[in-house]
Amino acid sequence: MQENKAQGTDISTLGEFGLIKQLTKGIEIKNSSTKVGVGDDAAVLDYQNKKTVVTTDLLVEGIHFDLMYTPLKHLGYKSIAVNVSDVYAMNACPKQVTVSIAISKRFTVEAIEEIYDGIRMACENYNVDLVGGDTTSSLTGLCISVTALGEAEENELAYRSGAKVNDLICVSGNLGAAYAGLQLLEREKAIFENNPNMQPDLSGHDYILERQLKPEARKDIYERLKEAQIVPTSMIDVSDGLSSELMHICEESKVGCQVYEEKIPVDYETHKMAEELNMNYSTFSLNGGEDYELLFTVPLEKFDDVEKMEDVKVIGHITEASKGIYLVTRDNTEIALQAQGWNPLQE
Amino acid sequence: MQENKAQGTDISTLGEFGLIKQLTKGIEIKNSSTKVGVGDDAAVLDYQNKKTVVTTDLLVEGIHFDLMYTPLKHLGYKSIAVNVSDVYAMNACPKQVTVSIAISKRFTVEAIEEIYDGIRMACENYNVDLVGGDTTSSLTGLCISVTALGEAEENELAYRSGAKVNDLICVSGNLGAAYAGLQLLEREKAIFENNPNMQPDLSGHDYILERQLKPEARKDIYERLKEAQIVPTSMIDVSDGLSSELMHICEESKVGCQVYEEKIPVDYETHKMAEELNMNYSTFSLNGGEDYELLFTVPLEKFDDVEKMEDVKVIGHITEASKGIYLVTRDNTEIALQAQGWNPLQE
């Protein structure tokens, strides 16, 4: 960033209000529930007789992202995607976001606009309105806090607590790819730091890199469930790893579960990366975070419906709580799952 | 904080989920609009046929607060107060907050509990439910992001844009005290840094210190307006200084204004502090930030009502836009006001 500064516009030339004006200009309101967006003490929303869901997530430089390999536009996009993902995980439709950013003075106005370009792209893609926020400076790292709001009919909401014995456990997409992408980026960063003349070798890894740097929330799965008139008995998004999310559902629903290693969807690139790093790819899919896939349960009688649902796999079923939380491995061994998900408090 | 660590509990012993559980245990839901609080992917709210307002603010260490003189409990309290203040400034009633905190590992669990004690106290005082959040680590400073939600009937909402020519301009409480408190704390900090054996001399300044360290949102004024059945034609909270807020109202309402220096309420301690520092106290009241008083306009015919309203002063009136934004000084000079409010982007 330092080099950019010489060519870019210093933030202080605009001031806080000028900067906010510049960043939010041309924002058009897309949802009828947004009555007033940016520009007053608060935004005004009207959810009429629907329920409102609200969720918030904080992305911190050096903990959640490394600016050495994270393009600012992708970072802006990701900050929205991870939040709307939580709204979809309630089986609700995201409608508004607020965004607060703390930026160090080493950033130029152009750099912040990059972040906002990504934010705007994501708002466009997920059809949400940016209705408020706060921009302030930071003495040190970059910090992005997003709150997302969405709506649902009361009987559509999917909590973590509704899974029942014999329910099928389903997951969208594939798991472990974002973590594989992170491993690759970290490896190349280490090589570059040891020898700055080395060029990073990222070829052939486009998919896992995109999963790490520009993850998508599963709007499509939310829509497919709606089309199929399925309300999951429980749902959660996979942000901390499959094991960790299964444990949340089992704990909140007071049930156990059995999932089958061979059924857990893993992409070819994730396999390849695990192999390159001499690691077990199941470690990636079970404990790697940031997949933002949807993990949900449906009653057994919905088997045909979910079986034919594009990009959804049945990976196991819910059992009595006393049976515990088990993975059946390829060689038919049952092992108790433990949440070894990414712990942001340990760095 | 470093000394505490030896005696306190290391954050990593609890992990993210353990920490969140510990911090949010015993939280009871107070508002009927809160259907589900902490513990799922998102909180669920039901505003029925009322409008929802939503606002967010980010407090960053070294920019908005200095841990050298800010007690953690006060910091937690303040982070809620400044957000519900924005809800009151819409003439709406705050109902829920979400809180995200990024903390460096130098903090102990006990230190974070201090912050949450303050947050809980404020939630109690303003009758809002803590419904969600995120706790993560930070490589450097402490960062607190709060989003507040509230409700109002559509015809009760007070925007910045509704002020009309001849409306009376009113302000609650007094102005400049929080800034005076900040000046005092900064002076004593500088003295201490030069000579660590010196004890800070804060006696006789309790009021301005409290205004800086533990500001209150004006719930009482919101309630008095309701009792008096007054819906302000415009309203804003004074967070960046009176001049800056007057300019927001005038710009959004496309009007001008005239305020009278002698009518602007300033506390005795603020006067005294300005004198000690050889500064003009009007600089404090016009440009000092963080008062969190309510600045609002009412139609002329409400003069008697606001005149008798406790802790509310009429300080001027709205004029045609062409007349500009003017302060009439004690010696009857008219000077154009400029927003010299605190700019968080310049540090």
Automatic annotation (TrEMBL), chains A, B:
Binding site for Mg(2+) 5: D240
The gene coding this protein: thiL
InterPro entries: PurM-like_C_dom, PurM-like_C_sf, PurM-like_N, PurM-like_N_sf, ThiL-like
GO biological process: thiamine biosynthetic process; thiamine diphosphate biosynthetic process
Note: Reaction mechanism of ThiL seems to utilize a direct, inline transfer of the gamma-phosphate of ATP to TMP rather than a phosphorylated enzyme intermediate.
Protein known as: Thiamine-monophosphate kinase
Binding site for ATP: Y116, G133, D134, R160, S239
Highest taxon in the source lineage: Bacteria
